[in-house]
Write a structure and sequence with these properties.
UDP-N-acetylmuramoyl-L-alanine:D-glutamate ligase; Protein-Tyrosine Phosphatase, Chain A; 3 domains; nine-stranded mixed β-sheet; globular
């Protein structure tokens, strides 16, 4: 991946000990480091990587990148080192060097919802057309983006980067490292609203991504968003001439013409920058199809063959906690479990409720929504939780199980016609869920990650055998008939 000579030059570091000729990988986690990798001892909010230097060496690290100020405390560590003033800044400089040495087409993704799913779709559909390097998991912050950049091999054909924020001025420095040729803003929604006054401020923060787009580059915006005009104006102010809209709006040049829900996916007739195509998408949800439009267009703009890209949507698989479907065996039949437990905000919660609505149930089955708190909504929290009553009523959901302090507002708003219960924690809700579910049901579990609703998914998976994990390999249609 890197010669140590190039690392020294890029990071302005000094060598200590007998350095290896090069390293095969980069890690900031001593537990998962590979043999022959470099360990960057980053100081985080809670932990300092220098405290785990010995563990990194024991687990195979060939090289340590450490801070000058911490060197005296590492006296017993005998591994070769590159000493720098600041480890995170050194990793950022290495990321800049990685970006400078590659000829890859670079795509950056931001937005209030759908960032990781869109990034993973791009990774998947581009993989048949060249070497793809993309962010791991949701590595989208002040250390995740530089780490992903620094790991990018020189011969990468397509680089895909997720850039997130929960405050203003966080995207700006990161996108200037990434310097994308193509930037996607998936949607503007009430995520992290506790740190902003309104959606306009969120849109302004997301618009920081335009400041790093390469000259002659492209921006893809959600044409159906109420903040489209604001984002377009911001992109124009950054001298970006190639601004494209995706969605169902009549003026979108990346347009969803027709859409049909299938049991484990959907089929979309689309016009991608003037080229008609059919996207057979093996992950359910209209919101997935919307972002698939942006993925197809970005891939085309990056030089990929659109027909090959469209075909690749047939075998997508959702990321863990982002729509994975499990069919569980119960006495008397099966239950479909939709795992949306990774994260939640008002927009993604509505999308999850729509998934539940569109999933067929057995004759005696029920739709069960298991919902936990949406975090970082500030003074808007009670109102935004209570407003979920409307999509729940429209979805035909039979039972609603709620967990967390903020979900009390929704519990009070739901009518008596819909069976609903509330518990303070996921732990307290677990027994209620296990006692409630029965053969024929469809269960959708969704909350912000910090609420811990993944334990509810695990409880069901532990109790009942998995018959199948769906989302890939099902029969696709060749177009939309209605």
């Amino acid at each position: 991946m890197w010669t140590t000579a190039d690392m020294l030059d890029a990071m302005s570091g000094r060598p200590v000990g007998d350095l290896p000729d090069g390293i095969d990988g980069i890690s900031i986690d001593s537990r998962s480091i590979g043999k022959g990798h470099a360990f960057f001892a980053i100081k985080g909010d809670r932990l300092d990587g220098h405290d785990f230097a010995s563990a990194a060496v024991a687990n195979g690290a060939a090289l340590l990148v450490v801070s000058e100020a911490k060197l005296p405390a590492l006296g017993r560590v005998t591994a070769p080192m590159i000493v720098v003033d600041d480890v995170l800044e050194a990793m950022s400089r290495l990321g800049v060097a990685a970006r400078a040495r590659t000829k890859a087409r670079i795509i950056a993704v931001t937005g209030s919802v759908g960032k990781t799913t869109t990034k993973e779709m791009l990774r998947h559909v581009l993989s048949a057309q060249g070497k793809v390097h993309a962010s791991v998991a949701s590595f989208n912050n002040h250390w995740g983006v530089p780490l992903t950049l620094a790991r990018m091999p020189q011969d990468t054909a397509f680089g895909v980067f997720e850039i997130g924020m929960n405050h203003a001025d966080e995207i700006r420095p990161l996108v200037k490292l990434v310097r994308p040729h193509i930037a996607i803003v998936t949607a503007i929604a009430a995520a992290h609203l506790g740190h902003f006054k309104n959606l306009a401020e969120i849109a302004a923060a997301k618009a920081e991504i335009f400041e790093g787009v390469e000259s002659g580059g492209h921006v893809l915006l959600n044409r159906d968003s109420e903040k489209f005009a604001q984002l377009k104006k911001a992109a124009t102010a950054c001298d970006i001439a190639n601004i494209h809209g995706f969605g169902e709006h009549k003026q979108a040049d990346i347009r969803l013409m027709k859409w049909q829900a299938l049991e484990n996916g959907s089929v979309a007739d689309a016009n991608i920058l003037g080229e008609a195509c059919v996207l057979n998408i093996s992950v359910p949800g209209r919101h997935i199809a919307q972002n698939a439009l942006a993925v197809a267009a970005a891939a085309k703009l990056a030089g990929a063959d659109l027909a090959t890209v469209a075909d690749a949507f047939r075998d997508l698989a959702p990321a863990k906690g982002r729509g994975t479907r499990h069919t569980l065996q119960l006495e008397g039949g099966t239950v479909i479990l939709i795992d949306e437990s990774y994260n939640a905000n008002p927009a993604s919660m509505r999308a999850g409720i729509d998934l539940l609505r569109d999933t067929p149930v057995a004759e005696d089955g029920r739709r069960i929504a298991v919902l936990g708190d949406m975090l970082e909504l500030g003074s808007f929290s009670q109102k935004l939780h209570a407003e979920l009553q409307v999509p729940i009523e429209k979805s035909g959901t039979d039972i609603v199980l709620l967990g967390g302090a903020e979900m009390k507002a929704l519990n009070e708003a739901l009518p008596d016609e819909i069976s609903h219960q509330h518990r303070e924690t996921a732990e307290e809700l677990e027994s209620v869920l296990l006692d409630t579910v029965r053969a024929g049901d469809v269960v959708m579990i969704k909350s912000s990650n910090g609420i811990g609703f993944s334990r509810l998914v695990a409880a069901l998976l532990d109790k009942y055998p998995v018959v199948s994990d769906s989302g890939v390999g099902h029969k696709m249609h060749e177009g939309v008939s209605a």
